[in-house]
Amino acid sequence: MTRRLLTLALTLFALGLAPSVTAHEVRPGYLEIREADAETFHVLWKVPAREDMRLAIHARFPESCRPVAEVTRFMAADSYNERSTLACAGGLTGRTITIDGLVATLTDVLVRLEREDGSTQVVRLTASTPSFVVEAAPSWLQVATTYLNLGVEHILFGIDHLLFVLALLILVRGGQRLVATVTAFTAAHSLTLGVATLGFVQVPQRPVEAVIALSILFVATEIVHGRQGRPGLTERWPWLVAFVFGLLHHGLGVGNSAADLP
Question: Which of 133, 136, 47, 48 is nearest to 98 (CA)?
């Protein structure tokens, strides 16, 4: 009975409201720091915004840092942007960078620091941890863990993702198949979040949101067909469907807020 009620609720929601479903609005800020030399850094600071309203969060660097060129400010694709060049006496290793105002928001900030030798440090700052210490040589595991945690958290706090996963729970039978399916969805979500944040992929946000809504409608239709004795693609290859839609389920939606450079 519970499974039938969940099926009915999901189907009615998807058929009636899916066209209006958009990716959730808790978009991350993005701070990119590129080392030009031991004491000079190029900075890109992107803050989620709507029209001329932006979140009241600000990147605070150590007192040893000072701007050496005029700060460029501009609005682009639902974000407020700042570009600057900082001279930091003694460099940034071992120093603390803080996002002021983050404790009063529901968002987080993804920070990417790229050194002159090509190595990177990636961290996620939240209301509970609004600052971090610049490391000398972060491991690849630390970078991968940051992206994975960010992907999982955005799935858990997005109604669109939860509806899609709920549909998978209804459709997929067997614990092993279910684990493989949810893992495929999470991996795809984290993968596109990473590549979009790094600027390798750019997709306009509105089409992505439309595809997310259509994915919910698709799996709801699959549920109906399955109850009619016509199992569809999702029941036969659930991990494939989960991975394909996971690539768009806000991995690109979130990532584009950080990667849509003019």
Answer: 133
Contacts of 254 (CB under 8 A, 6+ apart): 23, 27, 28, 150, 154, 193, 196, 197
Higher pLDDT, 213 or 111: 111
Could you identify the residue written with the tokens 């407020």?
A: 80
Residue pLDDT, tens place only, 46-95 = 998 877 788 899 999 999 999 998 999 998 777 899 999 999 999 999 99
| Helices of type H across the chain | 2-17, 140-156, 159-171, 175-197, 205-227, 233-236, 238-246, 251-259
Retrieve residue 203's tokens: 């997709």
Do 79 and 123 fall within a single domain? yes
H-helix or E-strand spanning residue 122: strand 120-125
Indicate the number of domains in the chain. Answer: 2
